[in-house]
Specification:
By secondary structure, this protein is mainly alpha-helical. The protein is built from five helices and no strands. α1 packs antiparallel against α5 and α4 crosses α5. The chain starts with 11 loop residues before the first helix and ends in a 12-residue tail after the last helix. 19% of the residues are buried.
């Protein structure tokens, strides 16, 4: 099994860090019951003001899951800020596609349309972080195909 080559573009770590800073800014308020109550009220007010719908009333289960999600995402964001690696962008891209899938499911089942704002960012960061990996893979496959014409590798050194 061959090791996956990482994207080498100098802006890729900046993209990974930018997505981490976004996560930190957006989810830090979800990490504790007290801050989540404030975020919940602000999001509900915003949703009502924009005509997108309010969040459901707070209950202990909702608070628990919001706090769990907020805590994990905050830790993941700090890791990507403090120790940015290309592989973090790959895993974050996959995580964002999963988040977007569950957000799409929730939107299809009637949650506040305010979620569309977060859904758009999830999809954008997911695609932006995954595409460079696809390009590297396609380049590797093209190089491999070009190097094996009759089952042997072409030699690039001159004789």
């Amino acid at each position: 099994m061959s090791r996956l080559r990482t994207p080498v573009h100098p802006n890729y770590p900046r993209l990974v860090r930018a997505s981490a800073w976004y996560d930190l800014a957006v989810t830090a308020g979800f990490a504790t019951p007290w801050t989540y109550a404030l975020v919940h009220d602000a999001l509900s007010s915003c949703g009502n003001a924009l005509g997108l719908g309010a969040l459901p009333e707070l209950d202990p289960w909702q608070i628990l899951y919001a706090n769990l999600m907020g805590s994990v995402v905050v830790v993941w964001a700090v890791l990507r800020i403090v120790r940015t690696l290309p592989e973090h962008g790959l895993f974050d891209g996959f995580a964002r596609i999963l988040f977007a899938a569950w957000q799409a499911y929730a939107l299809a089942h009637g949650v506040s349309r305010l979620l569309w704002l977060f859904f758009g960012v999830e999809v954008a960061f997911g695609v932006l972080q995954l595409m460079p990996w696809r390009w590297v893979r396609e380049a590797d496959l093209a190089r491999k195909d070009a190097g094996a014409t009759d089952g042997r590798r072409l030699r690039t050194a001159s004789r």
